[in-house]
Design a protein that fits this description.
- The protein is α/β, with parallel strands linked by helices and about 230 residues long.
- The protein has a single domain, classed as Rossmann fold.
- It is about 35% helix and about 20% strand.
- The protein has eight helices and seven strands, in the order H-H-E-H-E-H-E-H-E-H-E-H-E-H-E.
- It has helices at about 20-35, 45-50, 65-70, 85-95, 110-115, 145-155, 170-180, 205-215, and strands spanning about 55-60, 75-80, 105, 120-130, 155-165, 185, 220-225.
- Helix 1 (about 20-35) packs across helix 4.
- It binds S-adenosylmethionine.
- S-adenosylmethionine (SAM) binds near residues 81, 83, 111, 129 and 130.
Length: about 230
């Protein structure tokens, strides 16, 4: 079984097109104020100054989902990790536009932040449209693998929720197989068609919109930590 920490190579580019001036300003000024502390154990009090339910988004892309959820639940604390600078800059724009004070960001690998949180501390973990790594020989780089899932399971409270969305048929089958083998997660599906319908409180992300534009199906999975 791959150690979750060896999976840190699993993301590709960290930087894309040049940031617009306003975005560069946000990265310079707002990001340091909202960043997860670089070292040491993390918990709600250290991150938000009080005890509150915590949510964690792995690879938030441009941050639409993270900002939507944080706006919906202003008394909860949201932690998002994304290594891609342009995504972080876009997310900062959403946080500023919505005046959100309940989000902390990490520009980098999600697993390295997750492992610093106490066990059984998270109410929700979100993994939306993870990089598909479609070739079989790259399957071990997928986030849905025993190493990262063990870490996610450890950090979720009993009864807490893991939400996974994908528009990739290979990933969909893979996720069903890998998650189906786990005894620590129950699939919250009431009928076989459940995973075709967007659950409430789950806004469309940029990748999801792109998939739909291009005529691809999207699958939504909700799992409860046993
Ligand atoms: C296909 S994109 C989806 C982005 C977003 N969740 C959405 O639905 O629009 C996958 C994202 O996962 C990020 N990612 C990949 N590996 C990661 C890791 N180890 N930690 C955090 N983010 C990661 C990538 O940088 C990329 O932005």
């Amino acid at each position: 079984m791959a150690d979750p920490l060896t999976l840190r190579r699993l993301y590709g580019r960290a930087k894309g097109r040049r940031l617009r001036e306003g975005q560069a300003g946000l990265v310079e000024q707002l990001l340091p104020a909202l960043s997860v502390p670089a070292e040491g154990p993390l918990d709600s009090r250290r991150l938000f100054g009080d005890e509150r339910p915590l949510h964690f988004e792995i690879g938030f892309g441009a941050g639409e989902h993270l900002a939507f959820r944080a706006d919906l639940l202003p008394d909860h604390g949201f932690i998002g990790a994304e290594p891609f600078l342009n995504g972080v800059a876009a997310a900062l724009g959403h946080l500023q536009d919505k005046h959100l004070a309940n989000v902390r960001l990490h520009m980098g690998d999600a697993l390295s932040v997750l492992e610093r949180l106490p066990d059984a501390s998270l109410r929700f973990v979100y993994l939306l449209h993870p990089d598909p790594w479609p070739k079989a020989r790259h399957a071990k780089r997928r986030m849905v693998n025993p190493g990262p899932l063990d870490l996610i399971a450890a950090k979720l409270q009993p009864g807490a929720e893991f939400r996974l969305g994908t528009d990739d048929p290979v990933y969909c089958r893979w996720a069903m197989m890998v998650m189906g083998q786990r005894r620590d997660f129950d699939w919250l599906a009431e009928s076989a068609r459940d995973f075709l319908a967007r659950p409430g409180g789950w806004p469309e992300t940029r990748y999801e919109a792109k998939a739909r534009r291009e005529g691809r199906e999207v699958w939504y999975f909700r799992y409860r930590r046993v």
